[in-house]
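Marked as duplicate of an earlier ticket. Keeping the data here for the record.
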Amino acid sequence: MAKQPMLKFVSVERDMPEKRAAGARKQDFGEIYQEYAKAKAEEQASRCSQCGVPYCQNHCPLHNNIPDWLNLTATGRLKEAYEVSQATNTFPEICGRICPQDRLCEGNCVIEQSGHGTVTIGAVEKYITDTAWENGWVTPVTPAQERTESVGIIGAGPGGLAAAERLRAQGIQVTVYDRYDRAGGLLTYGIPGFKLEKDVVMRRIDQLEQGGVTMKLNCNIGTDITFGALRGQHDAVIIATGVYKTRDLGGEGAAADGIVNAIDYLTTSNRLSFGDTVPEYESGELNAAGKKVVVIGGGDTAMDCVRTAIRQGAESVKCLYRRDRANMPGSQREVNNAEEEGVIFEWLAAPAGFVGNPVNAVKVQKMRLGAPDVSGRQSPEVIEGADYNEAADLVIKALGFEAEDLPTLWDSPELPVTRWGTVKAEYETGATELEGVYAIGDIVRGASLVVWAIRDGRDCADAILTKFAAVNKIAAE
């Protein structure tokens, strides 16, 4: 009788890949988790219960076939595991590194609910695809035949690149336009190397180019080419710009020097990792070295900022968040990593203003949680008379992002947007009211997760292919 390869959660404990010691890892921007060895990956994958209703899969935006590729990993069939993983996810090695698994697949694992500790889904996913790269199983898209239809994609972030890969696989002529000098969007310039090393992103982009995707970088829509001209050049256009406008912070002294936006700060740091010369870093404007740093916000961007400041050699790093730990939107795993590295969290604390120019302190109001708001979360309320000043030489605003005013930037008032500035589009297809114009990812959803952008990109590509097929059928008749 064959030995049961799965359901070992009752005898095998959850075991994450070894994490580099905090003292060592905060000296550089290398990823903090080591790679699983083959035996360890198989062991951890074998803990999956292969449950009849896979909640991990159901709660993954891409509906990745997680139980199957865990089974294949546990039984040593890694190439097949990669093929199953890649079938639903354009960038599994990236999602394995940066997805908030504690809120998605792992957070809904059946054995986690029964007290045995979730399967380490993200770490196994990363291992599968890293192994695939090492063995040459990951190859550029090779369409069976070239087609004449052309699609222009505005934005080289995860959503745009996912759509590009799926369209190109069917022989569509794809051009991706991006205003930055490197493709990747948030993956390249927004997420620090200690979560996602940049060669992981660059090899995917190189592969897309090898497969025939054209990248037009340093290209600003509305300046270098009009939105109308772009529509004229392509049979369909996908807007995948993301949202990059920082939510502002008012209050006394908010315009003082030394108060900076998170995206500017993170982009500067990531440019350094490519070897770029960045004047704002060399001048100290976007450099935390030797400074008392205060980061305002409680999401994953705030966690990226505090941990970057530690690595830049800040004298101290504090994070202000107006709710408590249990109610913060960021990953608890990231909070734990930050605390290990020396970050201090000031919970139930909100900025009320700033002192000095350049800034030398943040005026802080202590808060308490009151009645739930419309979303069900408890609303923070000010505790009168509990204000204090928090010393700061550098204040980083990580309050989330909003949509830029695309109709104005692109001189395209006909582009339909919501009252929040996001583009009006169908969630299932990305189709807008404009013929041949689609929109996906954060520019439709608002600031969201990379995995949702990938899902949107794939769904939109499929909708465009269906539309082309219908047009071709009519033309043939």
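See parent ticket for discussion. The chain has a mean pLDDT of 94.
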